[in-house]
Fold:
Amino acid sequence: MNKFKRINESELQNINGGRNDFIQGILDGLRLSRFVKRKK
Structure:
């Protein structure tokens, strides 16, 4: 039971980390496109 709970928690952390990376990637992409527009 304890081992299963530990696996579940690490999986949840991986999902949350992936979601944060995804959001960060979108924010970086928006910032980049805005920077490119300003350069033109």
